[in-house]
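Case study B.
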Amino acid sequence: MATSDSEFNSDLLLAHKLPETRYTYNERDVAIYALGIGACGQDAVDSDELKFVYHRDGQDFIPVLPTFASLFTLGSLTKGLDLPGFKYDPSLLLHGQQYIEIYKPLPSKASLINKVSLAGLQDKGKAAILELETRSYEQGSGALLCMNRTTVFLRGAGGFSNSSQPFSYKNYPSNQGLAVKIPQRQPLTVCEERTQPSQALLYRLSGDYNPLHSDPEVAKLAGFPRPILHGLCTLGFAIKAIIKCVCKGNPAAVKTISGRFLTTVFPGETLVTEMWLEGLRVIYQTKVKERNKTVLSGYVDIHSLPSSL
Ligand SMILES: CCCCCCCCCCCCC/C=C/C(=O)SCCNC(=O)CCNC(=O)[C@H](O)C(C)(C)COP(=O)(O)OP(=O)(O)OC[C@H]1O[C@@H](n2cnc3c(N)ncnc32)[C@H](O)[C@@H]1OP(=O)(O)O
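Model:
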C-alpha cells in the first residue's frame, strides 16, 4: 500500500528500524517510582509498602516493583515518535494497553539497552492502534531483563486504509495481552486506595513529562476538563495491590502483566481493585469509586501461589 510521502505507506513503515535507546536507573529512581504509584501514600509506616521506599540496611536492599519495568520504554512517544509513512497527532494520543514480561527480578540499579520494534498497527476507522515492543538488556552481561509491549490509541489517526479491508499488522502471538473476561463470581479479594490530588505531579518525576498530566491548558486541548493520571500510574497502583493481597508482598512472584486502560482517571480519585484467581493467573479490574467506573482490567501471571492462599 505505497502512496505519496505524506500519506500512509506500509512499505516505508514496516521497513523502518527504530533506534536503540538507553535507560539507566538507581535506587533513588526505584524509591521515587514507588512513591509515585502510592507506596506509603495512606500510611508512611505500612511495612508492606515502606520496604519499596526505605531499607534499614541501605537503599540497595529495596525490592523493585515489577511495573518499574514500564519506565524503560519512556523516551520517544511522549515527545512524538516519528514514523515514516504514518502520520498522527501526538496531542490526541492515549495509552491503550501495556503488556510486560519479566524474565529476571529487576536489580535496584542498572544500565539498560532497549531494542525497540513495531509490533502492530491497526486501522480502527476513528482511531489507529499502534504497538511498540521494547526488549531491555542489561549493559555488560547482555542478559534480557524484560519485554514491554505498549499499545497507544491514536484518536483521529484512523481511516488511512481501505475501509472494506482495514490495515491490520501484528507480529506477536495472539494469546498475549488479550482483553480479559471478568468472572461473574465474588472476587477473592479487593483493595482500595485513594490517589492524591498531586499524584500525577509526583508520578511524572519518574520520567513521563507529558503535559497532559500536569498542564490544565494542554489537558483541555486534548478534550479533558483537567489533567489526567498517567495510565502507567494507575497500572502501578493495581499491580501493587495484587502483590500485597495475592503475592503476600513478594514482587518477584510476578511473571507477566497485562492491562487495558478503559477510561481516564483523575488524580485524587479512589481506586478499587478487585482480584480473582484462576490457576496461576490473577484476573483484576480497577474501578474509580467516586464514579463507579471500571478504568482498567487485565491479568497478572505469577510463578507460584503463596501457601496461605
Ligand atoms: C522508544 C520506545 C517507545 C515505546 C513507547 C513508550 C510509550 C510510553 C507511554 C505511551 C503513552 C504516552 C501518552 C499517554 C499517556 C497516558 O497515560 S493517557 C492515560 C491513560 N489512558 C487512558 O486514560 C485511556 C482510557 N481509555 C479510553 O479512554 C478509551 O478506552 C479509548 C482508548 C478512548 C477507546 O474508547 P472508544 O473510542 O470508545 O473505543 P471503542 O469504540 O470501544 O473501540 C474501538 C476499537 O479500539 C479497541 N480499543 C478500545 N479501547 C482500547 C484500548 N484501551 N486499548 C487497545 N484497544 C482498544 C476496541 O477493541 C475496538 O476495536 P474493535 O473491537 O476491533 O472494533
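The CA atoms of residues 136 and 296 lie 25 Å apart. The remaining cases will be described in the next quarterly update.
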